[in-house]
Write a structure and sequence with these properties.
The chain is α+β, with helices and mostly antiparallel strands. It is built from nine helices and 24 strands. It has a 16-stranded mixed β-sheet that branches. A three-stranded antiparallel β-sheet has the order 4-5-6, with no helix packed on it. The longest helix has 31 residues.
């Protein structure tokens, strides 16, 4: 089975259609020889998959007899960018198809104590009176009550609030805080119906009753918001504000009415990125402000408090919510910051890896050893794992 180069290139850039992605997957499976691989162990399988993909890329290039310039460009993509993307997907699909549930289901295999495993739904809910509820170990049903509200954990694990005997406490605003650890993520539906997905190493503080003419919550880390429309007692729309903690004295604020957006504002990142999916938002920091439209991303630079607007790479910005890592010419240190938060690892650098940029797409359920092996195929970096510590070295 031969595959046109333009489809390979679109797939590797991440803008292939669903039909074209299926063609790539079918192409991958077309050279799967189960009988020849049935007795090989998983490590050997992955090694053979990598070699077969490389051979097939070369075969397609030779058969199509394209111009030398185009051929050189494709070879460069295959060596520096493409192989990580194809291999990451290929290894995942291959393992899923041929190696059985033991590969893709961490619960189906024995895991050594020093094994680095992917994160999952983990979070702690802190109530206004200081009580702590570990959400990943709490059973489904009512897990707490406060301020006339029941706190419920449905079967899908997302936290929701439901009025039982609503009442106001004069002069007191009760706040809850949900915290996801490194290696965790969670979803919560706020008392006004707004849905929030929290990435690992993040927290969200919010009142259990949104009173007055506005709604304000406080985010640290990364969260995706689907904000509902709410009306005040006078029938006016109540704006929703997310205060994002930065290293500076004043927080950055995102003002919205009803919309869908993602905010990435980790303390160890140099910027805060706000990506708008639907609606309209305004961003403020002291006297500076910016308004963004759907499909745009605003980057707030912590060092100079400025905003920069650009077209958003939606698939990359929302990859974490969709269960993926998606790196598009990202620095190795930026990649490792994401991996360390999700896999709960320590990262150390030996040698100079500045200026090293990689691309690839990986499921967040991927074994980190396989993921790092794929990144190593670029020939730019190498990794050493000892316990829960990863050392990064230039090749």
């Amino acid at each position: 089975m031969s595959l046109p180069i333009h489809i390979i290139e679109k797939y590797l850039r991440g803008d292939a259609t669903e039909q074209e992605c299926q063609l790539v997957n079918d192409w991958y499976y077309s050279f799967n020889d189960e009988s020849a691989l049935s007795e090989a162990d998983l490590k050997q399988l992955h090694s053979q998959v990598r070699e077969r993909i490389r051979r097939r890329l070369d075969e397609n290039i030779r058969k199509l007899k394209t111009a030398q310039k185009r051929r050189s460009r494709l070879l460069k993509l295959a060596a520096a960018i493409t192989i990580p993307a194809v291999l990451a997907t290929g290894i995942y699909f291959f393992s899923k198809k041929n190696a059985g549930p033991a590969v893709t289901d961490p619960g189906a295999v024995a895991i050594a104590e020093d094994t680095i495993v992917p994160g999952g739904n983990k979070a702690t809910l802190i109530l206004a009176d200081g009580r702590r509820i570990v959400l990943d170990s709490a059973g489904a049903g009512i897990i707490g009550a406060e301020g006339g509200l029941q706190i419920i954990k449905p079967e899908d694990g997302a936290i929701v609030y439901k009025a039982s005997t609503p009442h106001r406490q004069a002069g007191a605003v009760l706040y809850n805080t949900i915290i996801t650890p490194r290696g965790g993520q969670h979803q919560v539906t706020l008392p006004d119906g707004t849905k929030v997905w929290l990435n690992s190493a993040s927290s969200l503080r919010y009142p259990i009753v949104f009173e007055g003419s506005s709604r304000e919550v406080y985010l640290s880390g990364e969260g995706y918001f689907e904000v509902t429309t709410a009306l005040s007692e006078k029938g006016m729309r109540k704006p929703f504000t997310v205060s994002v903690h930065t290293t500076r004295k004043d927080d950055m604020k995102v003002n919205v009415l009803g919309t869908k957006f993602n905010i990435m504002g980790y303390g160890d990142e140099e910027v805060v990125k706000t990506t708008l999916v639907e609606g309209r938002v305004e961003l403020w920091h002291n006297s500076r402000n910016a308004a963004i439209a759907p499909g745009q991303q605003a980057t707030f630079t912590k060092t100079d408090s400025g905003f920069t607007l650009a077209k958003a790479d939606m698939r990359q910005a929302l990859a974490w919510k969709n269960g993926e890592f998606r790196f598009e010419k990202m620095s190795i240190k930026g990649i490792m910051r994401q991996l360390s938060r999700w896999y709960e690892t320590e990262v150390e650098y030996k040698g100079n890896v500045d200026g090293t940029y990689l691309s690839g797409v990986f499921p967040r359920t991927e074994d980190i050893k396989q993921l790092l092996e794929v990144l190593e195929t670029t020939g730019l970096v190498t990794f050493q794992i000892k316990g829960k510590k990863i050392t990064v070295l230039p090749q």
